[in-house]
Protein: Zinc-binding dehydrogenase
Amino acid sequence: MRALLVDRSAPAGLRLGTAPEPEPAPHQALIRVAATSFNYGEISHLVPEAPEGTVLGWDAAGVVERAAADGSGPAVGTPVVTLAPAGAWAELRAVDTDLIGTVPEGADLGAVSTVPVAGASALRALHRIGPLLGRRVLVTGATGGVGRYAVQLARRGGAYVVAVTGDPETRGDTLRALGAHEVVGTPAAASEPVHGVIDLVGGKQLVEAYEKLSEGGTLVAVGHSAGEPEQFPYGALFGNEGRHDRTVASFYLLGCTNLAPDLSLLAQQVAAGELDPGVSWRGGWQRAGEAADALLGRRLHGKAVLDLDAAAA
Structure:
């Protein structure tokens, strides 16, 4: 089968080649992949560390080629969106049925392929904050894949959304169109304290965002794109003067249970046009190096989608 293979002699460490077809376990379905979406962490961390010839990839959308032998999951021919620790960058992938969401017939599978890591991470992070109606939520790294979903989902949940981006003048209109009420360049610039933070940057921004939390507020650390340590100054964790009961939380998406309904819900909303997947780059798999370089160079604000059908184009 065709697959993107780790090859550090190739541009961005990836080349289009062939790999053995996976053999599903009884609780797994075999998926014929139509499209995948890149995530920054895959390109920046997994590709440089993986053995040569490895097939990586978390996100993929496609159609069930072979249903799970144990009877779980969707039937043959069902359009699906899938999440797994590896295997998305290939024509076929074997996926646990509890990590498969169903997709409406006729949906753009490329757009839907952005859902697993970005959409589900945003949704689970917002769940960790708690009820959103009438509350203030701040999102750092708001123009990235997870950030765009977080802004939209928080707004749909009834929150007042503060979006943080390094270029608020240029990106402000886009973020407001997604649902942000306020667009700022740093967490400290937010007009008022917030009840919740979705932090996708880490480092200094996480520390600064924590300072904006009101009493009882929760910061959920999801991304660490800054690559910097979080160093809290003395007094930052004091609980007096309106800072009582503030929380820093983290989670591992693949450690979460019951993800299939989340994937289905998000896919349905993307298919219906209710959520904008933020696809800012799209092409065939032979252009994977180009997409990876754009991600590493921070030239993409949103998601990069690769369509397998266009691999030979």
